[in-house]
Design goal:
The structure is a homodimer of 103-residue chains. In chain A, 64% of the residues lie in helices and 17% in strands. Chain A has 103 residues and is of the alpha+beta class. The first copy, chain A, has one domain: Winged helix-like DNA-binding domain superfamily/Winged helix DNA-binding domain (Arc Repressor Mutant, subunit A, Orthogonal Bundle). Chain A has a three-stranded antiparallel beta sheet. In chain A, strand 2 and strand 3 form a beta hairpin. The two termini of chain A are 15 Å apart. Chains A and B meet through helix 1, helix 3 and helix 6 of A and helix 1, helix 3 and helix 6 of B. Chain A binds a DNA duplex (30 and 30 nucleotides) through helix 4, helix 5 and strand 3.
Chain lengths: 103, 103
DNA sequence: CAGATATGGTTTGTACTGTCAACTAGTTTA
DNA sequence: TAAACTAGTTGACAGTACAAACCATATCTG
């Protein structure tokens, strides 16, 4: 039958979590994005976004750069090479299951 | 831009969890399955499978029937109507994101 | 100038969840 | 009768997500 179902349990949970999946999806599309932009794009609360970003940074998936824009602090995020690789791998698994579910 | 990314955070987490997603995917394909079959199909441990099944039953997504097959206890599981509906809804969201990720 | 409000976040607390190891309960084998 | 197997369930523990509170600074408002 299908190892495909077994594969599901191997999804990268760090990415699979909906909040982080949204973040990763946005970042993979936008190349780099600031905190406020992610806030709007994902609909997450600030606290949530902050902690998920920290987790993704700790995993080495995103790079967080803090600086200033005018007088306000300003945080920009981008996928690292590793993050992009991890997301590509996830995407592959995701799409494999999608093909299964389509039928 | 895209509400699609916001939609991600609305995934039904009960189904989205990889272990349960595997279970639901199998059940949606097989119409009804016994414990051992699910064990093999998903690769989960018995304890894990048991507790996830309980959760899905508590949510009203699967129906669990206990009986005997010969002398051994025997548990069969099937999606309820509600479970099938929920899974269909999830599938729709899943595939919508898949289309996004394909590009 | 004092106070209120906005920006851009971080930290904390709580409640939930997933997972594995250990256990129950009965059956077969030798 | 003792060991090993089938078919599960339960308990304990670690990890997580989320909201609410908090912080620092900057800019308006009267």
């Amino acid at each position: 039958m299908a190892d495909e179902f077994k594969q599901i349990t191997n999804f990268d949970r760090l990415i699979h979590e909906p909040s982080r999946l949204a973040i990763m999806a946005v970042l993979s599309a936008c190349e780099n994005a600031d905190f406020t932009f992610l806030l709007n794009a994902t609909g997450l609360s600030k606290g949530n976004l902050s902690s998920h970003l920290s987790k993704l940074r700790d995993a080495g998936y995103v790079n967080i750069t803090k600086g200033f824009k005018g007088n306000y602090p300003h945080t920009t995020c981008a996928l690292t090479r590793g993050g992009r690789r991890a997301f590509d791998a996830y995407r592959k698994q995701y799409l494999a299951l999608a093909r299964r579910l389509k039928k």
